[in-house]
Amino acid sequence: MKLHGIFPPLTTPFAGDATLALDRLRENIGKYNRTPLAGYVVIGSTGESVLLSREEIDRVWGVAREAAAGDKILIAGTGVDSTAETIERTNRAAALGYQAALVKTPYYYKSQMTPAAELEHYQRVADAARIPVLVYSVPQFTGLALEADLVARLAEHPNIIGIKESSGNVQRVTEIIHATPPSFQTLVGSATTFYPSLAVGAVGGVLAIANALPELCVELYAAFRAGEAGRARALQHRLLKPTIKCLAEPGIPGLKHAMDCLGYYGGPPRRPFLPLTDAQKREIETTLATVAAATTARS
Amino acid sequence: MKLHGIFPPLTTPFAGDATLALDRLRENIGKYNRTPLAGYVVIGSTGESVLLSREEIDRVWGVAREAAAGDKILIAGTGVDSTAETIERTNRAAALGYQAALVKTPYYYKSQMTPAAELEHYQRVADAARIPVLVYSVPQFTGLALEADLVARLAEHPNIIGIKESSGNVQRVTEIIHATPPSFQTLVGSATTFYPSLAVGAVGGVLAIANALPELCVELYAAFRAGEAGRARALQHRLLKPTIKCLAEPGIPGLKHAMDCLGYYGGPPRRPFLPLTDAQKREIETTLATVAAATTARS
Amino acid sequence: MKLHGIFPPLTTPFAGDATLALDRLRENIGKYNRTPLAGYVVIGSTGESVLLSREEIDRVWGVAREAAAGDKILIAGTGVDSTAETIERTNRAAALGYQAALVKTPYYYKSQMTPAAELEHYQRVADAARIPVLVYSVPQFTGLALEADLVARLAEHPNIIGIKESSGNVQRVTEIIHATPPSFQTLVGSATTFYPSLAVGAVGGVLAIANALPELCVELYAAFRAGEAGRARALQHRLLKPTIKCLAEPGIPGLKHAMDCLGYYGGPPRRPFLPLTDAQKREIETTLATVAAATTARS
Amino acid sequence: MKLHGIFPPLTTPFAGDATLALDRLRENIGKYNRTPLAGYVVIGSTGESVLLSREEIDRVWGVAREAAAGDKILIAGTGVDSTAETIERTNRAAALGYQAALVKTPYYYKSQMTPAAELEHYQRVADAARIPVLVYSVPQFTGLALEADLVARLAEHPNIIGIKESSGNVQRVTEIIHATPPSFQTLVGSATTFYPSLAVGAVGGVLAIANALPELCVELYAAFRAGEAGRARALQHRLLKPTIKCLAEPGIPGLKHAMDCLGYYGGPPRRPFLPLTDAQKREIETTLATVAAATTARS
């Protein structure tokens, strides 16, 4: 299974009363289906996974499965701290038709989550999973990063096919690519270092900002693939501020507001996320206007 | 409600097949009932809370409630990332007879978990909770610490009665005590700084090591209360190595092995915790032998 | 040599044109001589050591030596990154009549400053030094902390007589005291955790805030020594805000302003320190007024 | 002044007795003169700047000045904590014929080294300097990084012409390039992220590993400039392990050993650096053999 290109980790739409708004999810996916996105990650960190009940997760998986076009690869976010529950979630997603599972590192009990513990966790999950596993390292949420030596060990497992590396540390990305065979697929989760990561060998991106700006992400990927270094650099710079101002700083509430501004359904995040202030909203709107202007000017 | 003294955050016993071993929990509590422990925290971090299903948590709460002696204060660990689910868990614990809820900070989406977001989360939980709330700051697991300014704001809420401060940062403990009224109760979660924390005004400890060494913890607390500074210092030093070697370094698997050595049921932890190596077990046993020798020599 | 009690690490007075104001240093020391301070550290971090030339350091050492009363212990701050230069400075201070040297960890090349490198550095310095050596761990400046295992090794050297531990980490202080023989003297550099550190066995403090508030520091030390736990706690709390507001937050410029307010010569810091803003000055003055009020109210 | 291409920050050669070995410096520079290196940084962190006396620094500057070929740009490392001394060193280097000064951030008093303090420090240095200034951010040594907002402010000064950004954080490099005008030159100090940094707009590298492997660094730079993305990626991967195994892990002692292996004079580092163990030396030799093999195989 080739995981090249751009995969947005889908946001989970909520109604004003914080219940699931599954029709809105369907509509968003309908729009994404008409773009060259490679596929979707459903129930990742950006999907507010830790704020959903097990039953809600199943419903989101089900709706996304139905709404996704047939040529889109479907990846389910299934990792939790418990090894057993990660396996249970993974095989539930497999039963629902997902093609791969994105499994974040267990992390709560940090000092004991040694490379040896992570290795054994992933081996057990990969042994038991009925679909291929992508490991997922996201230190900004978990406080714990997978290093290249360990990833090289994980890459030996026949059912572990790649990694989503979200640290934004390009040296680490390079080390992982260096330490793993060409068949092991390294995707990155950081849009602000997407082009540099492609330059050293990453094959794609699971980019939250692609929920709001799928075309820009796809265009950057295409420019890189076409060997147009100058254009790739320019697009990376164009992606920089929106990623910082609509996502990195305001988090998921900001991303959802950007989506609202750009014709998708963003809607409110769940608590404990605070609603955006008016000033935060305006900053997002101003940033998006600049991107639009740059895009228009260019064409 | 006075929360003075020592509260072990109970470990959750599992059988060899990783299912709940509720009889063992009952037996452990039966033994603790005969000590001067002030009460129990049920389903805290030490209880492997993040490795249990909602249904399992209810069963553990139920059994602990039945097994606890009438004079022991019962505190339920109810905090998760979702505000709504934290409220739901808290009121479920209230319905089961728990007297207070220990609510850890939401933390997964770290950059958005600003003091303002934490404040509003806790206010919503405390507004809705049918029992008093203890806030819980445990940066070694969450990567996020509550600072004194925010705790002072939280202390203004009539249903927030105290804090479990587990950072081990004694300056921060002092600042919190300084910034809050005398009615606000500061307990600490770090056994290695328990006496220094009492010295600056903490009223008790929620100490994981008290699962294995309840008498030593109680003795230290009593020495402090009796104004015996030299004895308190000596006991703090006696508690140092067991806490590091049986808990801080090996984590919950180590604590459970120490319990097994000392006549309680520890048993295996759940995955992704690795089982202890023989070398780790021996280090725990050696450390405990030294404590026992010191205790015997003294008496 | 007993290093019990309070040692201010003296600030270095500058005139308005940033040249040394040695008369002012003489005056300050004259005032401190009339207090029960145990001695002085000359050319520590608080003395803006890294902003002085070698020749200036010699002049400061010389003047302080002359001005200090005969019963005050004189400690020279002599540690720099280079082992050879540390030895040279140490023996220069010895020649000028200093009784001990405070030697901070080399730290610039952090990844190579392993425990083995620190050990050998200190052994070479202690071998060559004509006066006893106090090791000095100050991670807030150096990014590097000495842990108890290494300090235990250092304590075996006959010419290493103690440590100034400035991390403010009371568990670490406890571990160091636990790991070293009673003859090894642990002083702390953190005024906000001074009483808790004494409670676990520290024998004194090298406290920057003692430049401005020597009596309060001495009083806290005396209360502890007299076994007056309640009074020690109250004094620790009284010391908390001045230390944070006059020192931890504004740094040496703040401390110098506090000294100016309290009858000592503080004067301007050297660049790159910025001069205090008016708002910063007012906050210091307000804080000091509160301490004075508390002190008056009490007497 | 164009600072494009590769600048090694020269190591400082010492004899067996730790005195300066200036002839060896002359010989090394003689060899570098015959490569397409763009110039030299003399007395940077890699030059063991903090282990040299002022008088030694002048001698090294003088010899390097004489030995350097006329087409090589000469940059002096002149930054220390004191603003006044930084100016003095900078103008001393100017008087000796250096064309630019590399000025690292003051950092010892970290909490006070705010963006405002750094801004004023650099403005004062740039105002007084008789040669252009490159700012230098190297958080692995200083614990303090310059962020893009501040660099944009610094770039407004007519005498500040660029930055050496050594954090290895490619997002930060991108942000700096994004925030500064095209005339402001961003060089990076991290060889492990050199190609990704060039890809987003960096113009050159001040690369310590270029002391040992100047050709490989130059070749990577040339491949990038020629638009050969595949070759640049391959060369970046070839540079990865030598940089980690000969420099990042063993530090300057490792780099010097690699130089000894490759026909340059490395020699011993000064204390407190420990000499390499035999195992460390072998790892460096093995790593270099692999690079040589790869290079030979290719040609």
Biggest sheet of chain A: strands side by side, in what order? 1-8-7-6-5-4-3-2
Number of strands of chain A: 8
Instruction: For the record, give the distance between the C-alpha atoms at the N and C termini of chain A, rounded to a whole number.
Output: 35 Å
Largest sheet of chain A: 8 strands, parallel
Secondary structure tally, helices of chain A:
12
* Helical percentage of chain A: 40-55%
CATH class designation of chain A: Alpha Beta
Find the CATH superfamily of chain A: Aldolase class I
Name given to the CATH architecture of chain A: Alpha-Beta Barrel
Number of domains as seen in the coordinates of chain A: 1
Q: What's the SSE pattern of chain A?
A: EHEHEHEHEHHEHEHEHHHH
Overall form of chain A: globular
CATH topology of chain A: TIM Barrel
Oligomer: homotetramer
Compute the gyration radius of chain A: what is it?
18 Å
Beta-strand proportion of chain A: 5-15%
Structural class of chain A: alpha/beta
Mean pLDDT of chain A: 97
- If interface size is counted as residues with C-beta under 8 Å from the partner's C-beta, which chains form the largest one? A-B, 40 and 40 residues
Give the uncertain stretches of chain A in residue-range form. Answer: none
Task: Characterise the protein shown here.
Four copies of one chain form a homotetramer. Chain A has helices at residues 22-33, 54-67, 83-95, 115-128, 139-142, 148-154, 170-179, 194-199, 214-225, 229-248, 251-261, 278-298, and strands spanning 5-7, 39-42, 73-77, 100-104, 133-137, 160-165, 185-188, 204-206. With 299 residues, chain A is α/β, with parallel strands linked by helices. The first copy, chain A, has a single domain, classed as Aldolase class I (TIM Barrel, Alpha-Beta Barrel). Chain A has an eight-stranded parallel beta sheet with strand order 1-8-7-6-5-4-3-2. In chain A, helix 1 runs parallel beside helix 2, helix 9 (214-225) packs antiparallel against helix 10 and helix 10 packs antiparallel against helix 12 (278-298). Chain A is globular. Chains in contact: A-B, A-D, B-C, C-D. Chains C and D meet through helix 3, helix 4 and helix 11 of C and helix 3, helix 4 and helix 11 of D.
